[in-house]
Amino acid sequence: MNEPTFHHRQNKNGLLVDRIRRDGLEKTIRLLSGLISLVLIIGVSVSPRVSGQPQVRDDLSADIQIPPPPFTDGIFPCMDCHADMETNPERRALEDFHDDIVLKHDEENRWCMDCHDAENRDMLHSASGKPISFTESYKLCGQCHGPKLRDWKAGIHGRRTGSWNGQKEYLLCAHCHNPHSPEFKKIKPEAPPLKPGEIR
Ligand code: HEC
Ligand code: HEC
Ligand code: HEC
Ligand code: HEC
Asked: Which atom of ligand 2 is nearest to the CA of 80?
């Protein structure tokens, strides 16, 4: 039988066939399997999708959908009215407008401008003064309710729907909690069900 002939330039390591000829099959297989596991290790550590652990992400980004903030119709943009108004930072009962808002949320220590921006009423702001949009109000809540924010991101608190690996939908904290009076309203218990004998 004729040996097949290969026409190619030689370089240091040569083609696989040359290597097999030179170093023997066993050594080459060891080299190749080493390379393959390296590729796998890199692949797994780069892609969060295949690492098996649910990822708690710091940034809720492209594949996260959040419905718009649950504003009262017509109240936003706030600057429709507030652009022409002086800010009144004084703690008081509001009478001319927003008289439905009564603060019942750590109210001894808090007032409107702790969360709302005095200059741009269309924004919230962090304790350090960094603007936060209403579509990201969970960042505001998370400053004081860190563990809840963490649970929320992980889909344990609140409600997350969508696919495990793909697009997800979250509800804002404000979809369930009124930021001004966040205590979840107690539900009045229903009367107990009738016993079978009482049903006629
Ligand atoms: C703990 C932070 C916080 C405080 C304190 C606070 N707010 Fe808010 N407020 C919010 C957040 C967050 C929203 C957005 C709710 C939403 O997404 O619909 C909001 C919404 C509003 C809205 C829109 C309500 C609507 O009907 O849609 C008004 C008006 C408002 N705040 C006024 C006030 C006034 C006035 C005060 C002070 C008496 C105040 N807020 C205190 C966080 C706060
Ligand atoms: C239709 C006009 C109007 C809109 C829209 C409006 N406000 Fe006001 N807001 C008022 C008036 C009027 C007052 C003063 C009420 C008072 O002093 O009794 C006020 C007062 C406030 C105050 C108390 C501090 C201050 O400057 O007097 C806050 C905080 C506030 N508004 C937040 C908001 C936010 C947040 C929005 C949008 C989500 C909003 N407002 C939308 C009319 C409006
Ligand atoms: C500056 C700190 C601070 C921020 C910001 C803040 N909270 Fe709170 N929150 C508190 C404190 C303190 C309490 C406990 C005292 C109270 O209930 O009044 C509390 C209580 C609560 C409670 C429990 C109420 C109850 O009695 O069961 C809920 C729910 C809540 N906050 C939701 C929110 C949401 C939603 C946001 C964002 C819109 C938010 N908080 C932003 C400080 C904060
Ligand atoms: C789908 C609705 C929903 C969403 C979204 C949601 N919560 Fe809640 N949360 C609840 C309910 C219901 C309770 C009441 C549980 C109870 O009373 O046992 C609660 C309770 C709380 C409490 C007080 C309970 C305790 O453990 O002391 C805090 C604080 C709170 N939520 C903060 C948040 C924050 C911050 C966010 C956003 C990052 C958020 N929640 C998002 C439904 C929700």
From this structure: 5
Whether 88 is in a domain gets the answer yes
149 lines ligand 4 (CB under 6 A): yes
Mean pLDDT for the chain? 80
Three-state DSSP at 198 gives helix
Let me know whether 26 and 97 are in one domain: no
What range does the domain containing 27 cover? 16-50
Which of 66, 106, 135 for mutating ligand 3's site (highest number of atoms within 8 Å of CB)?
106
The Cα 49–Cα 53 span in angstroms is 9
Residue 178's nearest CA partner among 114, 117, 89, 100 is: 100
The predicted-structure confidence for 172-186, as pLDDT tens digits, reads as follows 999 999 999 998 777
Distance 159 CA to ligand 4 centre (A): 10
How many whole angstroms separate alpha carbon 21 and alpha carbon 19? 5
Domain count, the chain: 2
116-125: which pairs have CB atoms within 8 A and are 24 or more residues apart? 118/87, 118/89, 119/87, 120/79, 121/78, 121/79, 121/82, 122/76, 122/77, 122/78, 122/79
- Residue 118: nearest ligand to its CA? 2
Q: Is the pTM of this model over 0.85?
A: no
